[in-house]
Design brief:
This protein is an alpha/beta fold and 355 residues long. It folds into 2 domains: 192 residues, Periplasmic binding protein-like II (D-Maltodextrin-Binding Protein, domain 2); 92 residues, D-Maltodextrin-Binding Protein, domain 2 (3-Layer(aba) Sandwich). The protein starts with a helix and ends with a helix. The N terminus is likely disordered.
Length: 355
């Protein structure tokens, strides 16, 4: 093979003659893996690696069960934190368990079914006065947002004497909202009949079915009551009776004494705080969470709920002492009047979460 042939064959400078022959070079090129096959191979490797990392991340999440009530706008911060996976940022996979009323949640906490509850402040006070070590460690909603919706023939709260008032459960925030409504008009609790319905949806059904004359209902179900023709009889958030720990985070004092458990709560509160912020500022996120957990699909109802609650949620999760004091006066227990309200809450975990 002459030099000119080598140049034409290899396409390089004639110095290449010192390298492989044309045949050897051709064989070398043929033995090279083709680009697409290697690309596919690497794509598979990267996909598997990504899947493995994702699986490892999932395994690293600590599972945490939280009992909550109600299925209404009052629980929006928790709904958002779960739906938007905010808890994942802090290393937790939170499973929410709905229970129809704060007393049921508190009993479950004391029984060891789960360590943290999204419950009502009034029920925490009742439990503690009864001898438990349950305590409020945060409050994501410190005003009563549970309205009284009545039949058209009920013209005033005074007309409720001898009537039936629907609530979720005795000792729940809806019950205390009913007591606030009666107090605002000087009606005594024993002048009405309280009916337990089990949940907000069930309360609306009781009102629409005629089983009660007035019912304490939160949004978005309150909008459904309005659409059905019922009248708004009492809105506590616009009165002096509105300051109240409607939603509070509860845990046991004895459980919180362990450092690892305290860390769990602090992380939980950080995530919940982000949920509160979004509930105040982000309509799209709020409506998405509400739609999933309340199964309300009407956009007007969802938007109305966002507008109603956004200013009700606080800028801090600290428990308001005055709100707890307002709840304390409604608690039916012989020790309630003389008790120091500060024994019912502890803001130290919120303070730690804010750092």
């Amino acid at each position: 093979m002459n030099t000119n042939f080598r140049i034409r064959c290899l396409g390089f400078h004639s110095d290449y003659r010192k390298s492989k022959t044309c045949t050897e070079r051709s064989r070398s090129i043929q033995r090279r893996p083709r680009g697409p096959k290697w690309a596919g191979f690497f794509a598979i490797i990267l996909t598997l690696a990504g899947f493995a990392v994702a699986q490892a991340g999932q395994r690293d999440l600590q599972k945490l069960t939280v009992g909550y009530t109600p299925i209404s706008g009052a629980a929006i911060p928790l709904f958002i934190a779960m739906e938007e996976k905010i808890f994942h940022k802090y290393g937790y996979e939170v499973a929410g368990i709905f229970m129809g009323g704060s007393p049921l949640i508190n009993s479950a906490i004391l029984a060891g079914e789960f360590p943290i509850g999204y419950t009502g402040g009034g029920a925490i006070i009742s439990s503690r006065l009864g001898g438990s070590d349950l305590i409020a460690i945060a409050s994501p909603l410190q005003v009563l947002t549970i309205d009284g919706w009545a039949k058209s023939e009920i013209k005033s709260i005074a007309d409720l004497r001898g009537k039936r008032v629907g609530v979720t459960r005795f000792g729940a925030s809806s019950y205390f909202a009913g007591l606030s409504m009666l107090e605002s008009a000087g009606v005594k609790p024993n002048e009405v009949t309280f009916i337990q319905n089990g949940g907000v949806g069930e309360s609306l059904a009781a009102l629409m079915g005629g089983r009660v004359d007035v019912c304490m209902i939160g949004y978005p179900y309150g909008l459904r009551a309005k659409t059905a023709g019922f009248q708004l009889l009492f809105r506590p958030s616009t009165t002096e009776y509105g300051l109240f720990p409607t939603a509070a985070i509860a845990a046991r004092d004895s459980w919180l004494k362990e450092a690892r458990n305290r860390k769990v709560v602090v992380d939980f509160l950080r995530a919940l705080g982000e949920g509160v912020m979004l509930a105040r500022e982000n309509a799209a996120v709020t409506k998405r969470a509400l739609k999933k957990f309340t199964r309300v699909n009407d956009d007007a109802d969802l938007q109305g709920s966002f507008e109603f609650y956004k200013d009700a949620f606080p800028r801090t999760l600290r428990v308001d002492e005055k709100a707890m004091a307002n709840a304390q006066k409604f608690v039916d227990h012989p020790k309630a009047k003389g008790a120091d309200v500060k024994q019912f809450f502890d803001n130290s975990l919120v303070e730690e979460a804010l750092k």
